[in-house]
C-alpha cells in the first residue's frame, strides 16, 4: 500500500511574488494510475518534484501517513522518469542493472530482476546494444526500466512520451499500463495530452494556474466538470459555453430561451447571470422542426473520424455558437437545423469563478 497525501501545499520560485502551486489538497488513496493534466506552466512538474523531495514548499506531504518534510529523496521509495530519457553509455543490460548495483542482493537475484523488467518491457532483443545509441523510444523504454527495477512504491513520470513518435507512443503507453497492473505501485503521470491521461489513468487531476481544479475519475470529469475550464480542456471539441440570464423563469440566451433544469432552479432563482455548459455529444439535431427543439443554422461540417462529424452551429440572430458531435447522416452544411438541449446534460457555472454551482 502507498498512500500519497498533500495538504495545503504551495510553492513559489520567487519568494512569494508568484505561486507555481497554490493550496493543493489531494489524496491518492492507494496504488493505481493517476495523471496530472493541464496546460503548459500550470504546475505539473512542480507538483511532481515536491512529491519527489526536490523542491521547497509550504504545507505537508505524507506517504502512508508519514510526513515527508525531513525525509531525503533517497529514502522516499520513489523513482522518476523524465521527458528526455536518462541512459548511460553502456549496454541496455548494464543500464538496467545500474540502479540496483549497490543493493544487498545475490547476483542471481540482481540478474533475475533485470531479466524480469527486460521481459515486461520487451527489451530482450536489444539487451546487449549500447543504450545511448538507441532511438528515442527505445532509450525511453530503458529509462523506464531503470526507474522500475528499484522496486520503489511510487513512480513519477514527467511527460515521458512527448518526444516519441505516435505509433511507438501507443506501444509504450500499453507497457506502462501493464507494468502498473503487474507491480501494484502508485504511478503519477504528468501530461498535457488528454488522450494520454484518459488511456493511462484511473483518476485525473486537472490543473490550471497552480491549482487542482478537479481530481476525479475520467467519467465523472467528463460528465460533471467542476469548472468551465475543465469542461473545455477535457473533450474534443471541449464543452460548449454559453452566457445566460435568468428571465421570467427561463434561461435566456438573447435569441432563444430554455427551461431551467430542475437541479438548477434554486441557483438561477437567486442569480441573474450564469454560464451554461453542454457537451457537443449531448445534442439531438433534426432537419425538421420539433417541439422543444431550437432553430440553428449549420455553418460548417467537419469530419471527426470514426464516422463522427462536428457541426458548427449558429443561432437565429447569430448571438450564440455551438459545436455538436454525432453521426448526423442527414444534416447538410448551409441548412437550417433543430437542436434539442437535454435538460439532464445541462451544467450551470458561476459567472465569476467558472465553478460548478451544484
Ligand atoms: N526553476 C524555476 N524558476 C522559476 N520559475 C519556475 C521554475 N520552474 C517552473 N517555474 C514556473 O512555475 C510555473 C509552473 O511550472 P511547471 O514547470 O511546474 O509547469 P508544467 O505544468 O510542468 O509546464 P510544462 O507542461 O510546460 O512542463 C510556471 O509559471 C513556470 O514558469
Ligand atoms: Mg513540466
Main attributes of the structure:
9 helices, 2 domains, five-stranded antiparallel β-sheet, alpha+beta, Rossmann fold, OB fold (Dihydrolipoamide Acetyltransferase, E2P), binds adenosine-5'-triphosphate, 358 residues, binds magnesium ion, 32% strand, six-stranded mixed β-sheet, single chain
Q: From the structure provided, what is the oligomeric state, counting identical versus distinct chains?
A: single chain
Run of helices and strands = EEEHEEEHHHEHEHEEHHEEEHEEEEEEE
Regions with pLDDT < 50 over 5+ consecutive residues? none
> What small ligands are held by the chains?
adenosine-5'-triphosphate, magnesium ion
Q: Rounded to an integer, what's the Rg over CA atoms?
A: 25 Å
Give the strand order of the largest sheet, numbering strands 1, 2, ... along the chain. 6-7-8-3-9-10
What integer is the average pLDDT?
94
Number of β-strand runs? 20
Largest sheet report? 6 strands, mixed
Strand content: 25-35%
Helix/strand/pairing category: alpha+beta
Amino acid at each position: 500500500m502507498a498512500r500519497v497525501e498533500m495538504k495545503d501545499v504551495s510553492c513559489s520560485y520567487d519568494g512569494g511574488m508568484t505561486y507555481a502551486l497554490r493550496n493543493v489538497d489531494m489524496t491518492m488513496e492507494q496504488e493505481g494510475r493517476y495523471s496530472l493534466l493541464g496546460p503548459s506552466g500550470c504546475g505539473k512538474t512542480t507538483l511532481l518534484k515536491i512529491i519527489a523531495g526536490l523542491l521547497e514548499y509550504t504545507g505537508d506531504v505524507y506517504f502512508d501517513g508519514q510526513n515527508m518534510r525531513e525525509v531525503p529523496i533517497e529514502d522516499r521509495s520513489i523513482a522518476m522518469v523524465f521527458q528526455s530519457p536518462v541512459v548511460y553509455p553502456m549496454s541496455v543490460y548494464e543500464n538496467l542493472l545500474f540502479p540496483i548495483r549497490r543493493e544487498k542482493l545475490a547476483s542471481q537475484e540482481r540478474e533475475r530482476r533485470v531479466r524480469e523488467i527486460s521481459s515486461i518491457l520487451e527489451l530482450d532483443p536489444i539487451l546487449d546494444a549500447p543504450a545511448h545509441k538507441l532511438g528515442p523510444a527505445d532509450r525511453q523504454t530503458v529509462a523506464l526500466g531503470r526507474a522500475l527495477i528499484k522496486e520503489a512504491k511510487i513512480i513519477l513520470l514527467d511527460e515521458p512520451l512527448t518526444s516519441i513518435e505516435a505509433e511507438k507512443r501507443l506501444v509504450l503507453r500499453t507497457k506502462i499500463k501493464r507494468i502498473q497492473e503487474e507491480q501494484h505501485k502508485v504511478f503519477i503521470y504528468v501530461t498535457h495530452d488528454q488522450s494520454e491521461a484518459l488511456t493511462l489513468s484511473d483518476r485525473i487531476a486537472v490543473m490550471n494556474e497552480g491549482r487542482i481544479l478537479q481530481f476525479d475519475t475520467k467519467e465523472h470529469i467528463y460528465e460533471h466538470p467542476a469548472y468551465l475550464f475543465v469542461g473545455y480542456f477535457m473533450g474534443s471539441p471541449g464543452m460548449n459555453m454559453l452566457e445566460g440570464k435568468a428571465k421570467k423563469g427561463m434561461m435566456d440566451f438573447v435569441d432563444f430561451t430554455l427551461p431551467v433544469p430542475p437541479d438548477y432552479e434554486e441557483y438561477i432563482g437567486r442569480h441573474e447571470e450564469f454560464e451554461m455548459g453542454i457537451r457537443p455529444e449531448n445534442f439531438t439535431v433534426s432537419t425538421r422542426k420539433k417541439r422543444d427543439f431550437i432553430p440553428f443554422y449549420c455553418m460548417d461540417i467537419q469530419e471527426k473520424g470514426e464516422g463522427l462529424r462536428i457541426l458548427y452551429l449558429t443561432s437565429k440572430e447569430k448571438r450564440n455558437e455551438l459545436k455538436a458531435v454525432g453521426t448526423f447522416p442527414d444534416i447538410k452544411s448551409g441548412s437550417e437545423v433543430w437542436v434539442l438541449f437535454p435538460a439532464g446534460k445541462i451544467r450551470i457555472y458561476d459567472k465569476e469563478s467558472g465553478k460548478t454551482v451544484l
